[in-house]
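Work package 3, deliverable 3.1, input record:
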Amino acid sequence: MRYVMIGNSYAGLAAAEAVRRRDPKGEIMVLSDERHEAYGRPLISYYLGGETPPERMNYRPAAFYRNHRIQVRTDSRVVKVLPDSRHLQLADGTDLAYDRLMISTGGKPFVPPMKGTDARGVFTFTTWQDADDIKEWLPRVRDVIVIGGGLIGLSAADALRHRGGVGVTVVEMLPRVLGLALDEDGSNLLQNRMVELGTQVVTEDSVTEIVPDGDGVVQGVVLKSGRELPCQMVVVAIGVRPNTGFLQESGIQINRGIVVDERMATNLPGVYAAGDVAEGYDVINADHRIIAILPVAYEMGLIAGANMAGDSQLYAGGIAMNSMPKFEMSVMTMGLTLDQPDLEAVRRRRGDQYQKFLFRGDQLVGAILVGDTTAGGVLTALIKKQETLTAALKERILYGNYRSLVAERKLTWAKAAKAAS
Amino acid sequence: MYPERVAEYKRAINVDAAKCNACGECIPACQQAIAYEHRKADPFPRIWIQRVGQKLQPLLCHNCEQAPCVSACMTGCRHRDGDFVTTDYDRCVGCSMCVMCCPFGVIQLVEEEKLAMKCDGCLEHETAPCVAACKPGALRHVGYLESAQITRWDKAGEFAFSQVVSAGKGER
Ligand SMILES: Cc1cc2nc3c(=O)[nH]c(=O)nc-3n(C[C@H](O)[C@H](O)[C@H](O)COP(=O)(O)OP(=O)(O)OC[C@H]3O[C@@H](n4cnc5c(N)ncnc54)[C@H](O)[C@@H]3O)c2cc1C
Ligand code: SF4
Ligand code: SF4
């Protein structure tokens, strides 16, 4: 059996691990269009910021590939999938056969159509190469414009701030940074902190044009409001789109991302998909959508791999969440975080600490923790499990000692186990 | 670090909450044992004694079979090492993805050091110092294949619900 994983990252490697556990003999090949071995993708921000040296970027030690007998081909872009003959075509013309195929090609940064995006000094920020390119360009930079105040934009801005030596301005179209994940109160706290630390934030405005000088080097941007900001570098971070271009003629079913069932199987025989490229089940919204975070990518990958190797595993679904200790402030968001008419919101604020809990009836469906994020995983579990909460339990959540919930739960189990024996 | 020796012992730390009398001896024992992993801060204990009404419950890492913290670790520093979920603190960046995903709330972020620490089993000790310190016997080593363990895993899965509990079975 020959397993081919397109994508040498969280989803692809989780699948490779899961396959190897079940099939000691099969041939496993992992393809990547990047130059580097698998690395922690979000780590590019720590790397650019000077916190993580290159030798600590690797996601798995070299021994991992040996022990799992995984063959990796870097610098190998897949340009076509031919599902009828179960073949792949690489950019260099190589033809590869597969029995089971995993598509875990993640996302690629979206660059909006506007003037000047081809100027020198304009970058995206999703790969190690991007971080290296930015580093190389930095010596000639005084001011940077980061387009987009979402996760990736803030990661880039925080890295540049940490590195020092340049002025950073984040331009965000929404009224606040992290607008899709944080509510107004949370976002205000973060934004104040950013400004305190010297990062400028422009909201409710967007870049409409990047202006190059006579040599084609970026020298500024024009905003929708008419403002002009000088800069020698632009980082475009307004979002990523699933990386599915090479699948256009394959007949694979694509909605926004690749459509998968709960086994992570696509409509093509023997072809699976997982990670940022696929639409897995979202527990809270009760539908299929892309949740572009790495725990989800990894877990979808495990399920896909298990099924590729003939096991039968179903994905129970994930929730949107993130942990962002950026700008020296811990922020966690899990599940739903914005007010909705059908949700009860409870807020707690004390100085730089902020907690918000969202309930749908007696279920916790979302939370924001700013400042103290201790034991936040307990809330994540409650949200995922969609547990019906008693009034006392709800009270306990608001009180903030999540570990006591765990303790109580375990004591209940112990009692049940005793009763059973 | 000592995988062969410990693989032989196949020991996990099991908790019998009913025996805990809140003497708190395990806590300094833990702090002392892991002090060398701290660069700046005073050592944080990686075990908590939680009181619920009249009852006590020691909390520490369960070594979940398909550990949510491993799925969530962006650097790969938190990983399965034989029977244990252990951590290479040199590579941890304190991103807290694992803190956000551990259903038992037993990972401690040490902010000054940007490290997220948990009980890694003290595999370099034949008997974990907290176990040695626990006179009432609430903390105890058990063989890894004991059925108690299996129950524990299953319970972990119950709490974590949508974590893929069985996907990892077989790698032991
Ligand atoms: C700066 C930044 C910060 C982030 N921070 C966080 C965070 O804090 N928390 C979090 O949970 N998530 C974060 N993310 C998101 C996280 O990185 C992704 O969710 C995760 O990497 C998705 O994994 P994946 O395996 O689906 O795909 P990816 O990691 O995107 O990997 C895709 C792989 O496919 C390969 N590939 C693509 N196309 C082809 C092709 N045609 N041929 C061959 N190979 C191909 C690529 O080389 C790559 O190896 C961040 C992302 C970025 C960029
Ligand atoms: S998820 Fe929590 S309890 Fe489970 S192995 Fe990780 S740290 Fe331990
Ligand atoms: S805080 Fe450390 S152990 Fe936890 S996910 Fe981040 S890098 Fe991994």
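Strands of chain B lie at 11-15, 48-52, 55-59, 78-81, 84-87, 108-110, 115-117, 139-143.
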